[in-house]
């Protein structure tokens, strides 16, 4: 009986050790330094629900990155646009963004918050050209948009169009969509993500010139940073904390792990 209890008590210790080891390995794998980075999102709360590990990592002062958030809607689908804009400013500060001045929210009928609405990539490109002239790195959703949300997917196509038309050297990183099992596996997904990203970076190394950026960026948040991300949802984005969001912030790998390609 005593041995059984000892085995049970060892489980949280092993999980905590595994978690911290993954976080340490991710920090030593690939990172951005001295970049002017814009996180392109569709709605207030995207930054906390999907990109919190990335924000908490890239905003660390020692990396000397300039990180901003560019949101293409106020999230007004339920008539709460004004509230949600304020929530985004609060969340951004909690996730390491230097000041509210580094958060831009576009409230335009061209970009309605809608589960049915596909935004025109040319209009997105034009919007980015007007406001993101000085950045050299864009981070946004991939072509599947994590949740298949059409607004998320539109950002991917709009960002690609903008970069294709821009004469400046701009690096695009997109957040990888995964299957539903991995999506809700929290910290357990970190080891596979680390192995896969390490292999991708190793395979790409022969094609990279000296000084080029890594092919894949991976971040595994520490337990303390995961708690910060959860608080950004529960204390800043209060209007969005419906019952199912508690499951998301407790189980989603995107609260813990980000891999950008």
TrEMBL record:
- Coiled-coil intervals in this record? none
Q: Which InterPro entries match?
A: GlcNAc_PI_deacetylase-related, LmbE-like_dom_sf
Q: What class of enzyme is it?
A: hydrolase
Q: Which residues cross the membrane?
A: none
> Hey, what's the signal peptide range on this chain?
1-21
Q: Which keywords appear in this protein's UniProt record, sorted alphabetically? A: Signal
Return one Gene Ontology term, BP aspect.
GPI anchor biosynthetic process
Q: Name one GO cellular component term.
A: endoplasmic reticulum
Gene Ontology MF term list = N-acetylglucosaminylphosphatidylinositol deacetylase activity
User: Which Gene3D superfamilies is this protein grouped with?
Assistant: LmbE-like
Pfam families the UniProt entry points to = PIG-L
EC code: 3.5.1.89
| PANTHER family for this protein | N-ACETYLGLUCOSAMINYL-PHOSPHATIDYLINOSITOL DE-N-ACETYLASE, N-ACETYLGLUCOSAMINYL-PHOSPHATIDYLINOSITOL DE-N-ACETYLASE-RELATED
By sequence similarity, the record places it as follows: Belongs to the PIGL family.
Q: What is this protein called?
A: N-acetylglucosaminylphosphatidylinositol deacetylase
Species this chain originates from? Piedraia hortae CBS 480.64
């Amino acid at each position: 009986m005593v041995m059984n209890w000892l085995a049970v008590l060892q489980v949280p210790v092993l999980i905590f050790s595994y978690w911290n080891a993954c976080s340490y390995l991710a920090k030593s794998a690939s990172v951005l330094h001295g970049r002017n980075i814009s996180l392109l999102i569709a709605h207030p709360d995207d930054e906390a629900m999907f990109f919190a590990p990335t924000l908490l990592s890239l905003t660390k002062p020692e990396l000397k990155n300039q990180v901003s958030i560019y949101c293409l809607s106020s999230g007004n689908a339920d008539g709460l646009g004004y509230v949600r804009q304020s929530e985004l400013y609060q969340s951004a500060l909690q996730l390491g963004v230097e000041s509210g001045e580094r958060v831009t929210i576009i409230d335009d009928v061209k970009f309605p918050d809608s589960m049915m609405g596909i935004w025109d990539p040319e209009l997105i490109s034009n919007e980015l050209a007007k406001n993101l002239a000085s950045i050299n790195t864009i981070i946004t959703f991939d072509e599947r948009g994590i949740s298949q949300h059409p607004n998320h997917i539109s950002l991917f196509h709009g960002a690609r169009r903008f970069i294709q038309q821009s004469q400046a050297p701009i690096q695009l990183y997109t957040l990888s969509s995964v299957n539903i099992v991995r999506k809700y596996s929290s910290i357990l997904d970190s080891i596979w993500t680390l192995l896969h990203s390490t292999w991708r970076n190793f395979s790409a190394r022969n094609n990279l010139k000296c000084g080029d950026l890594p092919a894949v960026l991976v971040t595994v948040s520490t337990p303390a940073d995961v708690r910060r991300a959860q608080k950004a949802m529960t204390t800043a984005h209060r209007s969005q904390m419906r019952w199912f969001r508690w499951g998301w912030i407790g189980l989603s790998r995107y609260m813990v792990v980000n891999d950008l390609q």
